[in-house]
Amino acid sequence: MTTAINRIRPRAMVLLWAGQVVLAVQFAMAGAVKLAGGPALGLAGLMAGAVVTSVAILHADPWLPLALGTVAGLIAGSRR
Prior knowledge:
The chain is mainly α.
């Protein structure tokens, strides 16, 4: 029994993934534009907690939450 995923050609699969990435970027950009000072500041605080959790508990690299927190902090600072 074949599923719908097995019937999609590799090139079509790549195009579908590319479309998903484009949509995700569009949603992320739309959300970032709407962040005001208060919510962005809250997100920066949340990301600070994520950095501490990544290092202290998960023993993982903190670069992603650090980068997201920095962006949120910059947005919060510019919207004040």
